[in-house]
Write a structure and sequence with these properties.
alpha/beta; 2 domains; seven-stranded mixed sheet; four-stranded mixed sheet; 41% helix; binds 4'-deoxy-4'-aminopyridoxal-5'-phosphate; glutamate-1-semialdehyde 2,1-aminomutase activity; transaminase activity; Glutamate-1-semialdehyde 2,1-aminomutase; EC 5.4.3.8; PyrdxlP-dep_Trfase_small
């Protein structure tokens, strides 16, 4: 399958040769790498994308989950073109800014908002706000979770699980080089779906005079397949963080606007003190946001925290976000996602049963995946014990060779858009079925 794919990517290979001259690895971001060379894209339309070799794919990767409105959506196009004609950047507020904040407030139940340009900026600013609000330095995160590429969160993301330490004392491990040694211990990881371990660690940190400012977490993990919260877990986390004077941040960069109209916050019914967003918010343009309670966001309003950025609230991005929220991500869009996701999950589950394949389907709204594990994954340890990266890779190759573009590796596999249809989902299921058939009948 690997050779078959490479043979279709001739022009991409040529481009890679040129691109490498002045662009590190020939790509704009390390997450765009692929062995032996990257796939260069020509264009997208609706649910489909075409590479520079003219290969056509249904796009389930969808720009790492940003493209829920589909490629080249005319509604977004109109909003952006209108805005372009009036000027694209002033670094001054406009009407779209507060209309979008009002809409987000309604959806997430948090009254105060600010904008950024990416998910990383959102989590970076949210953590600073939490630190300022609590007057504390250490922060907590879930072991294995990704929250962007700044120092405070490039900690304890992916490690051999024999290095991670025991459940009650998971270790702070830098993810890649260049993270100052002095900042590493300020980020303390805890296991997902384990409220007892969380409280145990908080009490210990308090005893050492290091009470944590916040817990930043995805309410439903999205980067080790999809791991939902066990019943009662989020409620317990809410209670514990409140009792210990910590800010609870739900990182909704992936979940917000995809798994439901009000993200994980509304879907699971637990209100955090802050949410961070990006990806699907900007209608395909780079835009992030932070929402919070009056109390927590008071440190921004008082001027204690500088929440700033030249391009924050860039008019093109906010105009796209407004059109996206008002005209694209309507209640009908979420019904559409639910219908398609059910089709995908039912189809994949049937394949899993038919071939006795080690895995199960899980999904919400526009997001889903087949988790390649014989047992249920509830946290990083069960993920590492169960995950089959060989199957992930094989599944990706089968899909790519059958015109289905999906996220490689251990990320969640599919993000739907409003332009996806039953035919796209059936192509996905058929590619998966072929792989399961070939693998399980050998
Ligand atoms: N938080 C989460 C949950 C994410 O999944 C990501 C990106 N995958 C980020 C933050 C960082 O977002 P960005 O890549 O836009 O900086």
């Amino acid at each position: 399958e690997s050779d078959r794919l490479d043979a279709k990517l001739v022009r991409s290979r040529e481009m890679y040769g040129k691109a490498r001259e002045h662009l590190c690895n020939g790509v704009a971001s390390s997450y765009q790498l692929r062995d032996p060379w990257p796939i260069y894209v020509d264009h997208g339309e609706g649910s489909r994308v075409w590479d520079v070799d003219g290969n056509e794919y249904y796009d389930f990767h969808n720009g790492f989950g940003a493209m829920v409105q589909g490629h080249a959506n005319p509604v977004i196009g109109e909003a952006v073109n209108k805005r372009f004609a009036k000027g694209t950047h002033f670094a001054l507020p406009d009407e779209d800014d507060f209309v979008v904040a009002g809409e987000l407030s309604e959806r997430f139940g948090l009254p105060k908002w600010r904008y950024t340009n990416s998910g990383s900026e959102s989590t970076m600013d949210a953590i600073r706000i939490a630190r300022a609000y609590t007057h504390r330095d250490p922060i907590m995160k879930i072991f294995g979770s990704y929250h962007g590429h700044h120092d405070a969160v490039m900690i304890s993301i992916a490690e051999d699980y024999d290095k991670i330490g025991d459940r009650l004392h998971l270790r702070s491990l830098p993810y890649g080089a260049g993270i100052p040694a002095a900042t590493i211990p300020l980020t303390v990881p805890v296991p997902f779906n384990d409220a007892e371990a969380l409280e145990h660690r908080i009490v210990e940190m308090e005893g050492e005079g290091n009470a944590p400012a916040c817990l930043i977490m995805e309410a439903c993990l999205m980067n080790m397949s999809i791991v939902p919260p066990e019943p009662g877990y989020l409620e317990a986390v809410r209670d514990i963080t409140t009792r210990h004077g910590m800010v609870l941040i739900f990182d909704e960069v992936k979940t917000g606007l995809t798994i439901g109209p009000g993200g994980a916050t509304k879907l699971f019914g637990v209100r955090p003190d802050m949410v961070t967003m990006a990806k699907a918010l900007g209608g395909g343009l780079p835009m992030g946001a932070i929402g919070g309670t009056e109390e927590v966001m008071s440190v921004v309003e008082s001027g204690e925290v500088y929440q700033v950025g030249t391009y924050s609230g860039n008019p093109l991005c906010v105009a796209a976000a407004r059109a996206n929220l008002e005209k694209v991500l309507t209640p009908d869009a979420y019904d559409h996602f639910d219908h398609l996701n059910k089709r995908l999950m039912d189809g994949c589950t049937e394949v899993v049963h038919r071939y006795g394949f080690p895995g199960y389907a899980v999904g919400f709204g526009a997001k889903g995946c087949v988790t390649f594990s014989p047992h249920k994954i509830v946290d990083y340890v069960t993920f590492r014990q169960g995950q089959r990266s060989d199957l992930n890779q094989l599944c990706w190759l089968y899909a790519m060779n059958r015109g289905v573009f999906m996220t490689p590796g251990r990320e969640e596999e599919w993000t739907l858009s409003v332009a996806h249809d039953d035919k796209a989902c059936d192509a996905y299921i058929n590619a998966f079925a072929e792989m399961a058939h070939d693998l399980m009948s050998d």
